[in-house]
Structures are given as C-alpha cells and as structure tokens.
Amino acid sequence: MLLTLVAVLVVAIASRGHPVAQQFFAQFPRVHVVVTAFLALVVQSLPFVLVGSMLSATVALWMTPDRWARVLPRRGIAAVLVAALVGICVPTCECSSVPLAKRMMNSGVTPAAAITVMLAAPSANPLVVYATFTAFGGWEMAVARLVAGMLAVVGVGVSVMVWGGRAFAGLGLVAPHDGGRRSWWGLMSHDVVDSLTFLCVGAFLAAVINLVMPVHLLVSLSHQVVFAVVIMMTLAIVASLCSFGDAFVAASLVGVHPAGMLGFMVVGPIIDMKLASMMEGILGDRPTRFIAVSGFVSALVATLTVAWLWGWWG
C-alpha cells in the first residue's frame, strides 16, 4: 500500500510533462491550476511525513508503557505539565499517539497525563514546529503554533484531571487494538499510509478552495478574527490532516487571517474526524466526546489568546 501511494504520486508528477497531459491542461486550465497546487503541497509535505513516521515508529518501539509510567508524575497538575513537556519531545503523529495513550493508562499513568502526552506529541514536537517554519518561511507562525498548541493541550489535560473522572472511569474495559508487538517497518508504513491518504485529501481540498473561493469571502476571513478561526478549525476537523503536513496546507490558503491558519493547525492534532474514529475505537465513546468538546474549546481559546499576544487582532 505504501509503495502504491508513492508510485501514484511519482506517475502523477511525471505525467504532467506528457503531450497528452499538456493538451488536456491547455483545454482545462483550471484543472491544471488545481493539479499543480495539489502536487506542490504533497511534495513539500512528503519529507516531513516520511521522517516523522520513521521517528514515530522508533519511539513506539523504544518507549514502552512501563517506561512512560516511570517518567511521569502520578498525580496533580505536575503530571499534566510534565506530560506536556515530555510530549513535545516525542516526534510521533496522531495515529500512533492514541494507542500509546491507552497503553500508558494500562501501565498506571493517570488519564490526564496520558491524554496530555497523546495530544502534545503531534501538536508541538520539534519536527512539526520545523515543518511550520518551512511552510511559512519564518519563525513567527512556528512559535505561535508551539505556544498555542501547548496552551490547548494543557487545557485539555487539566479538564480531564478536574472534570473527566466519570468520562474516563471505565476506560480499562476497552482493549487497545494496535495489534500488540509489531515491526518497525509495519508501524512506520502504517503511519505513512494514513498520513499520506489524508494529506492528499487535504491538499486537494486546499487547491480547490484556493481556486473557487470568492475573493470577498477571503477578504472577510482576513478581517473577522473569531469567524476566521472557527471556520478554519471546522475545516481542519473535516480535513483530518497529519500534523507533519498540515502547515503546508494552511500556508497555501492565501488571504485567510493568520489566526485562522493558526487555529487550523492547533485543533487538528487534538480532534478531527479521523482522530474521533480512532479514539472511539480505543478509548470509548465518553472519553472521545469529552476530548472533542474540551479540545475544541481549548484550541479556540488558545488560538485567540496567542493571536492577541502576537498582535494579529488589529
């Protein structure tokens, strides 16, 4: 499956120079614009997806649940804060972090700490921050993403600690479905296929939006901060992108308010349609709903706060 996806991308890129393709694009220039934008986004994101998936597989094999239990404090706000700091050092994607959180809780880690690691790892690890720097061509948005992501993740962790007792009470009854022991290649290829699939969908949506979205709507999104953030967060939930590639899709949406782009990147690693499905299968329905609501609210508040601190409200 992994080789098939890569082969399709290679053929798509190579075929653009074929005479038949050139003739087709000459007749349908708008299709050419969409294809060009789509391929540019995928090619830009691909190295980060591949490297991130390799590191994610390595961490999954090396950091066993028992090791996590020894690293993290067992109670209180300290557990959440340490979990957030530990999480940003773990270059893993959303697909790997959900079963990891379940295994951590089975090893004695508190739900608040486990969920914090689960969300912090794909939200603000160094590779994600560097990918954001590359996509936007500077550190302003990259640092904004790091700060907003950490605020949102800690917000969810504290919410689980304070109000999540009932939602997470029966978590031990749900068995993890990650298949137990797996090879490094199996873990890596699974993450790559998942990431590339949703990256392609998101890149296509971004290319189409850039082509068909009316200019006046883009202008309105560049002036109404709260509206821009909510719309872009909703788009991120639907697109279900991997955090290693979402910055390139966000940066391609020219004309959208910076706060909207930030919200797009902050909420995606916390909750989207793909993650909701995975969480429901591994963690259960009530924890998933709790994370979805607290995650959206925390991401919204964190995004608006950082946008104000960065002077983007003016």
TrEMBL record:
<dbReference type="Pfam" id="PF03773">
    <property type="entry name" value="ArsP_1"/>
</dbReference>
<keyword id="KW-0812">Transmembrane</keyword>
<feature type="transmembrane region" description="Helical">
    <location>
        <begin position="247"/>
        <end position="270"/>
    </location>
</feature>
<feature type="transmembrane region" description="Helical">
    <location>
        <begin position="112"/>
        <end position="136"/>
    </location>
</feature>
<feature type="transmembrane region" description="Helical">
    <location>
        <begin position="195"/>
        <end position="213"/>
    </location>
</feature>
<keyword id="KW-1133">Transmembrane helix</keyword>
<protein>
    <submittedName>
        <fullName>Putative permease</fullName>
    </submittedName>
</protein>
<feature type="transmembrane region" description="Helical">
    <location>
        <begin position="225"/>
        <end position="241"/>
    </location>
</feature>
<feature type="transmembrane region" description="Helical">
    <location>
        <begin position="33"/>
        <end position="64"/>
    </location>
</feature>
<comment type="similarity">
    <text>Belongs to the UPF0718 family.</text>
</comment>
<dbReference type="GO" id="GO:0005886">
    <property type="term" value="C:plasma membrane"/>
</dbReference>
<feature type="transmembrane region" description="Helical">
    <location>
        <begin position="76"/>
        <end position="100"/>
    </location>
</feature>
<feature type="transmembrane region" description="Helical">
    <location>
        <begin position="290"/>
        <end position="313"/>
    </location>
</feature>
<feature type="transmembrane region" description="Helical">
    <location>
        <begin position="148"/>
        <end position="175"/>
    </location>
</feature>
<dbReference type="InterPro" id="IPR005524">
    <property type="entry name" value="DUF318"/>
</dbReference>
<keyword id="KW-1003">Cell membrane</keyword>
<keyword id="KW-0472">Membrane</keyword>
<dbReference type="InterPro" id="IPR052923">
    <property type="entry name" value="UPF0718"/>
</dbReference>
